[in-house]
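Researcher: Good morning. I'm working through a list of sequences from a screen, and I'd like to move beyond sequence-only analysis. For each chain I'm collecting a predicted structure so we can compare shapes side by side. This is the next one on the list. No need for commentary yet; just the structure.
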Amino acid sequence: MPKTIKAAILRETGKPLTVEAIEIDEPGPREVRIRTRACGVCHSDLHMADGKYPWKYPTVLGHEAAGIVDAVGEQVTYVKPGDTVITCLSAFCGECEYCLSGKMSLCENPMLMRAPGQPTRLRQGGAEIHQFAHLSAFAEMMLVHEHALVKVRPDVPMDRAALIGCGVTTGVGAVQNTARIEAGSTVAVIGCGGVGLSAINGAAIAGASRVIAIDLSATKLNLAKQFGATDVVNPADGDSVKQVRNLVGGGGVHYAFEAIGLKQTAEDAFRMIRPGGTATIIGMIPVGTKIELHGPEFLREKKIQGSTMGSNRFRTDMPRYIDFYMQGRLKLDELVSAHIGLGDINEAFEEMKKGEIARSVIMFD
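Model: Good morning. C-alpha cells for this chain:
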C-alpha cells in the first residue's frame, strides 16, 4: 500500500512551494524507498522554482539528500533496510555508451523511470506528482531506482552526507575529474557558494599552488580561505580578470572554474586562463543565454568546457569524499549555514538569493 508523507510541492514557477500530504508508492523491481534524513537546498532547485530551467508541474524538488533505506523492491541486492545512503541526480543505467565508457554522469537512459502505464511513484488523490531528477528529496521519503543511490558508512553525520549528494561532488569533481588539475597548478574559482567552495577545497586537496577565490561577498571570501583559497579577489575592487592575472604574474591561471552560471562570469573564466589553460563552466547558465569569446584566443590553445555533476562516478567518488571528511581534509562542517525544517524552504530560497550563505540543510525527524 502507498504511504502518506509530507512534501514541498512546486505547482507553478515563481510561486512559493507548499507543504502538502502526498502518497508514495511501494518499491517496484529495482526500486528503493528511503526515509529522508537531510536535504541541502541547492541553487539548481532555485533555478527550477524560478523557471530558469523548464520542468513538469506539479513537482517535488530537492536532490541533495541522505537517508536510511526503508524498503527495497524485487531484484535489489545492493542495499537493505537500515542502510545509510546518499542519493545522486546523475543516476546511471550501466548499459549505455556513456556508462560503459566511464562517463556515467552523462547517462540519460529512461530505464531509470517507471514504464508508461505503470502507477507513478508519487501522487496526490490519484493525480501524478512529477518526480524531479529521479529523486524529489524535499519530502519525508523518496522512491528511487537503485542506481540513484550509494551506500555509505553509517557514522557520517546526515547533514554533511547530504551535501556530498550534489554540491560537494559537483565542485570537487569538476576540479579533480573534469579538469584533472595537476599538483602545483594555479586555479581561479568564480563564485563562493557551496559548489565554488567545494571546488576551492578540491583544488587544495589536489595540490594546487595558488587557489584564487572570486566573489562580491566579503563573508564568502573569508569563508573561502578556510576551504583552501590562498588569495581572494572582489570584483568590486576592479576588473577581476586583471586582478587574477596580476596575482600570477600577468599570464593567467592554468585552470579557471565558473560556479555561478552567468554570461559575464563564464566569459571572465576564459579570459583568466593562460595560453594552454582550461576554463570549466560549472554554473547552470540559463537556457537561451549565449557567451561570447574572442576567436584568436583559441590559437593559443585555450580551452573552455562544461562539467556535469563533477563528471562523477558517484559510487566510488562519494565514499572517498566521506573518507576525506573523516580525515579532516574535506570541509563539510563549514558548508552548513543553517538547519531548517521542510516548512522553511521558501525562506531558504530567499536567503540563497541574497548570496551570503553556503548551504541551508533541511532536517527530517
